[in-house]
Structure formats: C-alpha cells, structure tokens
Amino acid sequence: MDPKFETVRISVALIVKNEEANLARTLESIRWADEMVVVDSGSTDGSVEIARAMGARVIEQEWLGFAAQKNFAISQCGGEWVLSLDADEAVDEELRGEIARVVSGPDGCQALYVNRKNYFLGRWIRHAGFYPDAKLRLFRKGVVWFEERAVHESMKFDGPTEKLKGNLLHYAYPTLESYFEHMNRYSSLGASEAAKNGRRAGLIADVVLRPALTFVYNYGIRLGFLDGREGLLLNLFHAFYVSSKYAKLWALGAGRTGRERP
Q1: CA spacing 20 to 30 A to 117: which of 94, 106, 130, 173?
Q2: Element (H, E) at 85
Q3: Shared domain check, 181 and 82
Q4: What is the pLDDT of residue 260?
Q5: What is the DSSP annotation of 205-250?
Q6: Rounded distance between C-alpha atoms, residue 1 and residue 86, angstroms
C-alpha cells in the first residue's frame, strides 16, 4: 500500500471477462490501492490467474448486465472510497496523486469525475468529443450507483461533484478487430434498449442521413481531422456504428429479425 493512503482505505473495483491482454497493465497502475476487487464473469483465458498473481481478490459472478455487475463489484469492496475502473483502463501518475490528496484530505465532495484519454490504434484521440471524456469514477462507497440499462450504463449521484487532475488511460481499441467487435455488440445492445423504450428508426433519416451528419459534425466541426489517419478511420467507423445501430433498430421495429426473404 502507498503510504499516502495509510489513513483511509480505498478499493478499486473491476469487472472482467477474458481480459488477459489488458488486466496486468490495469492492475499494475493501481497497486497502491488497499484493495483490488476483480469480479470475473467466466473468463476462459488467463485473466483470473493474472489477477490473483497481482494481489487482487477475485470473485466469480455470472453476468448480470453492465450496471448490475458493476453495482455488485462495488458492493464487494471494503474501502471507504471506491475507484471504479474498466479492465482496459489505467491510472496515470498525476491522477494517482490527486486520488491520494482527495481520500486523505478533509471531507469534501463525495464523488469526483476523472478525465479519460481514449486510444485508437495506439494514438490518443484528442478531438471529436473523445477528450476529455470525463467519467464519474471515484466516490465514497454507498453514495453512487449504476443505473440499470442494457448498455452505456450511467452513474447516479445526488450532490456536488468535482473533477480531478490527471487521466485515465483508456486502451479501448488497439486493433481494428477489437473496434468492430465492440461496435457490433454495442450497436445490438443499443438497438435492443431503444426498441424496449418504444423507439423506431427510419431507413433514410436514421440509417443513412444521421450517420452522414454525425461524421460531418465530428470530423469537421469538432476537429476530428486533427487526429490524423487514426482520426479519419475512427470517425468513419463511428458513423458506421450509428448506421448499424439504427439499422438494427429498424429491423426490430419492422419485425424483420430472423425472417428470410423469399
């Protein structure tokens, strides 16, 4: 444990499944914490062994959904403060110092935001809304919870917040394959959730025009072109993600899922 954290217990909560490519880097960046809680939902790679070897407490829990799984992980933490991380994130040194300052200092905010650097094919993407990408991640246990949604879960907290200096390093898409795998899963989850909420999609307005306008807005107006070739690819693929999500929503609304054409 880092001496800076001696007076207050802090837990780090992660949910994982088959994250052996990322997990060691993540855990190495948080070894200063009093407790590392890893909730595994059935990994078949070396994730569990890596977590245990690096001193994490591993809890097996079948998949409950994004929000419910994260709430479960938080409930298993023994610290007064909890830092919620994804398995493909790491804490930089400046953020580590900020966390030490907050949890060891006088009572103040109960929940704090953290800026996140998103990496695509190894490049930090600075524009088009990908930075600072602030997330509510550090909080006193019991005051924050994840809202139950199928995807893009959000954290709920009633009270004042602040933002910490430093960054979470988010290594989300090291390869094109990893991006398309995420895109397919999240577009399906997003379409399913929208359909449950009674939303419908139009082929022209949503499947064709919306992604085109999304690309123009992000790549042009929000300066995505300043992120080089990686920025071009990411904004093109993000537009395709939008098209894919609304195409799936259209198919659900039209009752076409699973139907064969004559």
Answers
A1: 106
A2: strand 81-86
A3: no
A4: 36
A5: IIIIIHHHHHHIIIIIIT-GGGGHHHHHHHHHHHHHHHHHHHHHHH
A6: 21
